[in-house]
Design goal:
The structure holds two protein chains of two kinds.
Chain A: H1 2-14, H2 16-29, H3 62-83, H4 86-103, H5 110-123, H6 129-145, H7 148-153, H8 155-161, H9 172-178, H10 180-194, H11 200-203, H12 208-212, H13 217-229, H14 236-240, H15 243-253, E1 281-282, H16 290-325, H17 330-341, H18 351-359, H19 363-399, E2 409-410, H20 426-431
Antiparallel strand pairs in A: 1-2
Chain B: H1 2-34, E1 42-46, H2 56-60, E2 68-72, E3 108-114, E4 117-122, H3 132-140, E5 145-149, H4 161-165, E6 171-175
Antiparallel strand pairs in B: 1-6, 2-5, 3-4
The chains are: A mainly alpha, B alpha+beta.
Chain lengths: 437, 186
């Protein structure tokens, strides 16, 4: 056996032709894991070594992750409601950034957990309990106290918070249009995940490379670009992309005790207005006169009539874009590649085709499977479009409501509790006895 | 003003009902998702039977260099003098000179055991998971070199970036308690 082994080895060494020959003769006749060269019996006392494989080390147990998140949220509630101190909120958000971002590498976070929950609900359970808890805790907090998670605990938010230098006011109309994006990301993220096309929300997370201090260049550059944009448009990811923000917003809409600028009664001094980077302070507007009240009412009725059409238009758009979106699914991509390369030269096959051919699966079956997935993507993205349209229509409707507040208060859906308005309010100073009035 | 007070209470009651409903919905989602007996923590691994050595493990990982490394299943190795994972196909001579080596970073160590056998081991600090040696060994040798996710490096992303780009769907979730798919044991 040894002699044959030597012979074969040396034969190959002398000629490249032998190597090519071996491709033709050895490969087709050998099963996948053929032992072409059986392991030698060593004359000397040579021990065949054992490869060492480092085990999966759980750096932090699951229960500790959940406990830390819960504790961080509880501490934030105390900071925002009782201490009302911007420096403390900022320091704590730095701590959260260091822990959830740089120490835990930002995975698994509530933002991404939306997809895990969606997949598990659709395909029947099996989600580790800590992921479900991480998904639910910030939402339940928002239900009681507003979006405290965004301002302090979320590492993505805390990172952007550091780059807010000169926040510009985004015009109301532009803001309304841009805020469609998070809705679409949430809806399509769920469609992607449920249909098995991967996790869109995780893939579009721009900061994960920064948290790991190691990433492919495009990912890193995107993260930097978003941070730089954040110097003039405060928290661009949170406001115009984050899909979890949509859920938090829905919960915060009915919050029990939303973030208040001050516990004392507002005196409408307007000192807080310029401090909010995300434009979440509702300024009292003068009462409408009769003609504008009628105009407002007419606009409301018009929007009410338009609402179903908006939703249907979005649903149709979703349906039409379904086939494009489905290309994210590997099976659909494969089927498309197979059609493209059918008549092309066989030299330069993409690895997908190579893998498919090696498995020896039926091309007809692959096409059928692709068609099936395509259909479910169409239906899914039509629903996603419908959801986006409905929420958009509701938002437009709520924009035409009559001004109800005659004091300065936070917009509970937009306020992320960064605490910038707290020190601006003289009433807060009065309450905390930092100035004498 | 009793009417105002009454109005406020009704509003409050409605708000509490909405809150309870939303809270229950969130909780129900979470519970429904976890309903079945869970398999415990899982982590990413490459199924070496599916891997076609496309080279994307090197480039797609969020970590640079990649958390995937080449490992050597010694039990499968033929200890060949002419190792197709070690030498370039057009190697002028069968020695350790860099120009003869297939590995772009020289991460494979070659040790003489006895004539004509050599032992090959991987220096994981140098390996970039390009899969060149794996391709050579799989196509022309025993296939004892293969790629595995190393769990001292992998950060266990919620969704693995390599998995999403793997042309052979070779990335699978495995139980964290036995996180390797060793080819010699499959």
């Amino acid at each position: 056996m040894n002699a044959m082994h030597t012979l074969l080895s040396s034969l190959c060494a002398f000629s490249r032709r032998a190597l090519i020959l071996s491709t033709f003769f050895v490969l087709p006749f050998s099963p996948l894991f053929a032992s072409r060269f059986p392991q030698p019996q060593f004359d000397s006392v040579h021990q065949v070594p054992q490869a060492v494989h480092p085990p999966f080390a759980e750096k932090v147990p699951a229960w500790a992750d959940v406990l830390i998140l819960a504790a961080a949220l509880a501490f934030t509630v105390w900071l925002v409601r009782k201490k009302r101190s911007r420096p403390l909120i900022l320091s704590f958000s730095l701590l959260c950034l260091a822990w959830f971002g740089f120490a835990r590498h930002g995975c698994i976070c509530p933002v991404g957990s939306v997809q895990n929950v969606a997949v598990s609900v659709c395909h029947g359970g099996g989600l580790p309990w800590h992921v479900a808890a991480i998904f639910a805790l910030p939402l339940l907090t928002a239900l009681f106290f507003g979006r405290l998670f965004c301002g302090t605990v979320c590492p993505l938010g805390a990172l952007q918070e550091l780059f807010i230098i000169r926040p510009l006011r985004v015009p109301k109309g532009v803001d309304a249009v841009l805020r469609i994006l998070p809705l679409a990301v949430l809806a399509f993220g769920v469609v992607y995940a449920v249909n098995g096309a991967g996790y869109l929300i995780c893939r579009t997370d721009p900061f994960v490379g920064i948290f790991r201090r190691s990433a492919p260049l495009p990912l890193l550059l995107t993260g930097m670009a978003v941070l730089l944009l954040g110097m003039v448009v405060a928290r661009p990811y949170c406001r115009y992309f984050c899909p979890y923000g949509v859920l938090l917003e829905l919960c915060a809409r009915i919050a029990w005790k939303p973030v208040a600028i001050t516990d004392a009664e507002c005196v409408n001094c307007r000192l807080c207005v310029g401090t909010c980077p995300v434009d979440a302070i509702n300024v009292p507007r003068p009462p409408l006169n009769d003609s504008s009240r009628v105009r407002q009412f007419k606009r409301f009725i018009a929007l009410l009539i338009a609402a179903p059409f908006i939703a249907i238009a979005f649903a149709v758009t979703g349906w039409l874009s379904g086939s494009t979106i489905a290309k994210a699914h590997p099976a659909v991509r494969l089927a498309e590649m197979m059609q493209l390369t059918e008549d092309a030269d066989a030299d330069d096959v993409p690895p997908e085709i190579e893998a498919f051919k090696r498995d020896g699966a039926d091309p007809q079956l692959a096409q059928e499977r692709s068609a099936l997935i395509l259909r479910s993507f169409r239906v899914g993205s039509a629903w996603a479009g419908f959801f986006t349209g409905i929420v958009l229509a509701l938002r437009l409707l709520s924009m035409t409501r009559l001004p109800r507040n005659n004091l300065h208060e936070t917009d509970r859906m937009l306020c992320i509790a960064c605490g910038r308005c707290f020190p601006a309010c003289p009433k807060n100073h009065q309450l905390q006895n930092t100035i004498k009035v | 003003m009793p009417i105002d007070n009454q109005k406020l209470t009704r509003r409050d009651a409605l708000a509490w009902m909405a809150r309870a409903g939303t809270g229950a919905a969130v909780a129900a989602l979470a519970v429904k998702a976890t309903r079945q007996a869970e398999a415990g923590r899982t982590t990413w691994q490459i199924d070496p039977r599916k891997c076609i050595q496309c080279g994307r493990c090197e480039t797609e990982c969020v970590l640079q260099p990649s958390a995937v490394k080449c490992v050597h299943g010694y039990a499968m190795c033929g200890y060949c003098k002419l190792c197709f994972g070690y030498f370039k196909p057009d190697a002028a001579r069968l020695d350790e000179a860099a120009e003869n080596q297939l590995c772009p970073t020289g991460a494979i160590r070659r040790k003489f055991i006895e004539d004509p056998y050599f032992e090959y081991s991987i220096d994981e600090r140098l390996c970039t998971a390009c899969g060149l040696c794996v391709k050579g060994c799989t196509n022309f040798g025993n296939g004892s070199l293969y790629l595995q996710v190393r769990h001292d490096l992998c950060v266990n992303c919620n969704t693995c970036r390599i998995a999403e780009n793997c042309p052979a769907q070779a990335f699978v979730r495995v139980p964290a308690a036995s996180p390797y798919l060793l080819k010699e044991q499959l």
